[in-house]
Write a structure and sequence with these properties.
Elements lengths: L1 H13 L12 H5 L2 H5 L3 H6 L1 H13 L3 H14 L4 H16 L29 H21 L1 H14 L2 H14 L2
Helix pairs in contact: 5-6, 6-7, 6-8
Keywords: GTPase activation, Signal
InterPro entries: RGS, RGS10/12/14-like, RGS10_RGS, RGS_sf, RGS_subdom1/3, RGS_subdomain_2
GO molecular function: G-protein alpha-subunit binding; GTPase activator activity
Length: 181
């Protein structure tokens, strides 16, 4: 229990924007979904499968889809169990994204220092520095353009139209009657 109290205190101190004054999660963050959630941060976008799909669509048009694919592959790699499976996935990531002959080569500093010999003794965080570089590239470059793109804006508009549709309003009225009785 004391651990939970410490974590709550930590979150209040360092993330006040996600808590109300009493340390409870802010209701506005609990209700955010879709494009509203995507617009809060790249992290939020990457946590939503639909957000990833739309971001990939955008990056494909910008000829940089390999960035998000590499980031996703690294996230999946971290969950890999067993040395043989790690070796196979590490080699696949290297050959797809990092090798000089890679089909979807990402542009990262230090990729030349990552030689094929490291693939023999893989560990879950072996690509972390390179993944961080790609994340920052997306965060400070592609992500801001994505939020201004037709893909994002059209999806946002269709969400707003769905929310304002007569069916959605009727469902909301029914729900409020049920909960207010």
């Amino acid at each position: 229990l004391s651990f939970l109290k410490k974590m709550l205190a930590f979150s209040i101190l360092f993330f006040p924007e996600i808590n109300d004054g009493e340390g409870h999660p802010s209701s506005s963050h609990q209700t955010l979904k879709g494009t509203s959630k995507w617009a809060t941060s790249l992290e939020s976008l990457l946590e939503d499968p639909e957000g990833v799909k739309r971001f990939r669509e955008f990056l494909k048009k910008e000829f940089s889809e390999e960035n998000v694919l590499f980031w996703l592959a690294c996230e999946e790699f971290k969950k890999t169990q067993g040395k043989k499976q790690m070796q196979e996935k590490a080699k696949e990531i290297y050959m797809t994204f990092l090798s000089s002959k890679a089909s979807s080569q990402v542009n990262v500093e230090g990729q030349s220092r990552l030689s094929e010999t490291i693939l023999e003794t893989p560990h879950p965080l072996m690509f972390q520095k390179l993944q961080d570089q790609i994340f920052n590239l997306m965060k400070y470059d592609s992500y801001s353009r994505f939020l201004k793109s037709d893909i994002f804006l059209n999806h946002k508009k269709s969400e707003e139209q769905e929310e304002n549709s007569p069916e959605a309003q009727t469902a909301a009225k029914r729900a409020s009657r049920i909960y207010n009785t």
